[in-house]
Design brief:
By secondary structure, the protein is α/β, with parallel strands linked by helices. It has 17 helices and 14 strands. The strands form 2 sheets. The chain has a 7-stranded mixed beta sheet with strand order 2-1-3-4-5-6-7, sandwiched between helices. It has a 7-stranded parallel beta sheet with strand order 8-10-11-12-13-14-9. Strand 4, helix 4 and strand 5 form a beta-alpha-beta unit. Helix 9 packs parallel to helix 10 and helix 13 runs parallel beside helix 14. The chain starts with a strand and ends in a 12-residue tail after the last helix.
Length: 444
């Protein structure tokens, strides 16, 4: 049977590659389709004729994914539209949305093969273990499925699901997740859900040191052109006593490629920073959450002061490690004044790039327009601090497509300046993707 994965980003997605490997291991076929890289998505999907279509949209792109699903339902002759990932799992009532047939919760690597088996036998999908569907009388929740305790038992992520897109397969940066932490999403429109935010940097299941190193080496052997590794989930630095020292020692000795990772200030003690530098770390994406100490403590769960953050930045720069910041704009109880404190803290840090991520509010709540506008203007203002008075004024003038374009341009440029993607990788993406970046198809 054939499975089609639909994604928006022009970067390999660790979860989809793991899912692809899980179904290919069981004799199925899997392929990714990126709408903005297709001349005619409906025709391409129709020719592929998948038995199921899978989406794993991050918060902020869930409506985009639903719009795609509504149109592709017809192109596939009624194939089930399956949703997974953090947003769908955190919002199980997502299953009631028009366009979503089933939400897969927990570890979809074990759920999706069972769903495919039921499709093959023409059996009903609602009620399958590890799924949520919506019936006329409300939610149909399947029995909980046991989590995969030993991630080492899962197949190697399958980059071949991107065979339609050489500009992805030939990227020189290897995106890798050492565990099941919260994934970094590098698309400019990315948001983060409140439940996902609460999990950020919490203990997560990880590969063993031996398996993580073996997988990176095997992936590099298959694609010798890799020149950099980007650790995409936030679990790398969580065990700094046992797991991390062993991993970094072996990584520096056996892999020896420059890398980037996610971290929080209270993870970056002197010894950890020294180990990162020795292993080849060239960039840390530092989560500062908010410039307001009260909001930050509510997110982190422990007091991390401005001085803690600034000291960690000094330690990184002392060891020639670049710094990008990740800030969340639109947290619960956020005001325009607290959002300005986030802007000001970023200006004090002076990072190589300041990512500003929106927070996807619960139903019935919304972030004010002036805060959303400030988020769009934050990165360029951090780059050019003299713009701050103008930014404060412009954010209060109402929505502007120019603000969004500036945000997108500055975001794209950050990949070049940070070295996260080689210039030729950026050029391939630019020539292969439409300017729309995969805007939703129009529903009939």
């Amino acid at each position: 049977m054939r499975v089609a994965f639909i994604q928006k980003d022009p970067l390999p997605h660790p979860l989809l590659m793991s899912l692809g490997a899980a179904v290919v291991f069981r004799g199925h076929q899997a392929r990714v389709f990126i709408p903005a890289a297709e001349r005619d998505l409906k025709r391409a999907i129709g020719r592929y004729a998948p038995a199921a279509v899978v989406f794993a949209p991050p918060s902020g792109f869930h409506q985009w994914a639903l719009n795609q699903a509504r149109v592709l339902k017809q192109s596939t002759g009624g194939a089930p539209m399956l949703f997974t990932g953090a947003h769908a799992t955190d919002h199980r009532d997502f299953a009631r949305e028009h366009g979503c047939d089933v939400v897969m919760t927990g570890d979809p690597e074990t759920t999706l093969p069972e769903v495919l088996a039921k499709i093959h036998k023409e059996r009903a999908l609602p009620g399958t273990s590890g799924t949520v569907a919506w019936g006329s009388d409300g939610p149909i929740i399947g029995p909980p499925r046991a989590m995969v305790d030993d991630l080492d038992q899962l197949p190697l992520p399958d980059i071949e699901i991107y065979r339609r897109y050489p500009f992805i397969q030939q990227q020189t940066t290897l995106g890798f997740a050492v565990g099941r932490g919260v994934l970094e999403n590098t698309h400019a429109g990315f948001q983060i859900g409140l439940e996902e935010l609460a999990r950020r940097f919490q203990p997560a299941r990880k590969h063993s040191v031996e398996e993580a190193i073996a997988r990176i080496l095997l992936l590099r052997q298959r694609r010798p052109f890799y020149r950099r590794v980007a650790f995409r989930d936030d679990s790398l630095l969580l065990d700094r006593v046992h797991w991390l020292p062993q991993f970094l020692e072996r990584y520096g000795r056996e892999v020896s490629l420059p890398f980037s990772c996610l971290a929080r200030a209270d993870h970056l003690d002197t010894e950890t920073v020294e180990r990162l530098a020795e292993a080849g770390c060239k960039l840390v994406k530092l989560c500062i959450e908010s410039g307001d100490p009260g909001l930050r403590e509510g997110v982190v769960g422990s007091p991390v002061s401005d001085n803690d953050i600034l000291d960690s930045v000094d330690r990184l720069r002392t060891h020639n490690i670049g710094v990008q910041t990740l800030s969340f704009i639109g947290l619960p109880n956020e005001t325009f004044e607290t959002a300005l404190r986030t802007l000001d803290l970023n200006i004090r840090i002076a990072p190589d790039h300041a990512f500003a991520l929106g927070v996807c509010q619960d139903e019935g709540q919304a972030t004010s327009q002036e805060i959303e506008q400030l988020r769009d203007l934050l990165p360029v203002t951090v780059r050019f601090p003299s713009l701050r008075p103008m930014t404060t004024w412009a954010a209060r003038q109402g929505p502007s497509t120019l603000h969004r374009r500036i945000f997108q341009w500055h975001h794209d440029a950050s990949f070049v300046t940070s070295g996260e993607l080689a210039m030729r990788d950026i050029a391939r993406i630019a020539t292969s993707m439409k300017r729309s970046r995969g805007e939703a198809l129009s529903s009939p």
